[in-house]
Structures are given as C-alpha cells and as structure tokens.
Amino acid sequence: MGRAPMYFRGESPADRPDPLEELRAQARAFGIRAAGLTPQRHLEDWGISGLQTSEQGMPGEAVTQSVTLSRTYTVWQNPDDRHDPVKFRPVDDDLRRMQASATPDDLPAWIVQMRDRVQYPMLWEAVQTHWAPRTENSEAALDAAALLTAHVDHILHNSFRVEYGLGDPTEEPWKPLVRRAAVQEAGVIVDGAVLDTGVMIDTDPFVIGLGAPLPDGRAFTAVVSRSLLDFVSLEFVADGPD
C-alpha cells in the first residue's frame, strides 16, 4: 500500500511558508540591515538566510545582547548558462538521489528553487553582520578580530570536516581550527571605499576571511572558499537586499 502524503496543521506542502521570510521579518523588526558582497554576475544572493540572537534575562523579559545576520550565495561558474551541468557541485549520495527523483507537483516554489540551487556550488553563510546595543560591553561584542575568528572556525567545522579529518560532531569535542593570532590588519573595500580598520585571516588552506567594523556601529565578517575565489570579487556593501 502506498503511503499517503503527510500534511501538518491542515496545510498542504504547497501552502508551507518560506522559513527565510520569517527570518527576514525578524531582521526588519530589529531594524538591522545586513552587509553583503557587492552584486556580481557570478553570485546569486539568497538575501538574509540566517539569524542568531543572544539574550540575557528571564523568559518574557530577556534583553537582546547581540544579533548576527547571515547571507548565503549560489556561485554561477557559467552565469550565461546557469543550468550547465558541468558546473554542478561534486556529486554526493544525497545529491545523486535528489537528481534521480522527480520533483513532486505540490512543492511550493521556494522548495523547488532550493532543490535546484543546492546542485551548484554555494558560499554558505559567507557574510555575517553583527550588531549589539550600545552599552559598555558592546565594544567587546563587536570586536571584528574575535568575530572573524569565530566565523572562520564555524565555516571550517561545517563545510570542511572531511578536509580536516573531523568525525561525527555529536561524538567529538569541538576543537578550534583557527586561532585569533591568525588575524592581521587589512584594508577592506566597502561601498567602494577602503576601510583601513579591516581584518583578515589568510592562513587557512581552504578559506580566506575578511571583516571590518562599520561606521554605524555594526561589524561584518566574510568567509570565502579559496576554490571559488576566481568567481568572487572580495568587495562589500554595507547594506544588501533583504
């Protein structure tokens, strides 16, 4: 007997809302804009695709201590033919199964688009924007060197586990793959101007990291795979699209 499709709370699959829209609404409620890579033909900006908050206090009375917004990008190695199969990312078992299965007719458009995009190389959570309320602790919370170190470590642990010989993250203790000592000063281009307060990590064999405090009190960090640098210009905008 075939299995009936599963519906939740009376919604069919076609009615499921895009969870990224909820993230973007939360970002708008905070009044925080997200920095990003400057628009370029080899990249498709997903908009705000991640949001993390740190809060302090009792439930219902908690005060937000910091907010981090993330952007992910699809990398079009051949932007003139976006469906060129030669440009697919390396095929693993999950991608092979997805490509072999038909797309259900009742999927919402955002899932269909996501299903298509994951076939291509991506810069996952490549640019993060960091915000904290102006308090005596905000300078430490927005320290670009510390934020960049954490961002690079986050990307390495999630996207380069095989390269670093890491096993199951649920069974192994977290170990840092990059140290703050790797951070060096660097000029970073934002909105066409060089910020001489920028920082860089250029010691890892798999990624390069850049970041800087922004004039309005935010800070941003970016981590890009070296294997995709031929397709990415490391220039940024302070305010990208939602």
Contiguous low-pLDDT stretches (5 residues minimum) are: 1-12
Q: How are the strands of the largest sheet arranged?
A: 2-3-4-10-9-8-5
Tally the structural domains: 2
The number of distinct β-strands equals 11
What is the first-to-last residue Cα distance?
A: 45 Å
Largest sheet: 7 strands, antiparallel
The total count of helices amounts to 5
Determine the structural class based on helices, strands and strand pairing.
alpha+beta
Helix and strand sequence: HEEEHHEHHEEEEEEE
Please provide a brief summary of the model.
With 242 residues, this protein is of the alpha+beta class. Helices cover 20% and strands 28% of the residues. The protein folds into two domains: 40-75 and 123-242; 78-120, no CATH class.
Q: Can you put this structure into words, describing what you see?
A:
By secondary structure, the protein is α+β, with helices and mostly antiparallel strands. It has 2 domains: 40-75 and 123-242; 78-120, no CATH class. The chain has 5 helices and 11 strands, in the order H-E-E-E-H-H-E-H-H-E-E-E-E-E-E-E. It has a 7-stranded antiparallel sheet. A hairpin with a 2-residue loop joins strand 6 and strand 7. The longest helix is centred in the middle third of the chain and has 16 residues, at 144-159. The protein is globular and about 55 Å long. The N and C termini lie far apart (45 Å).
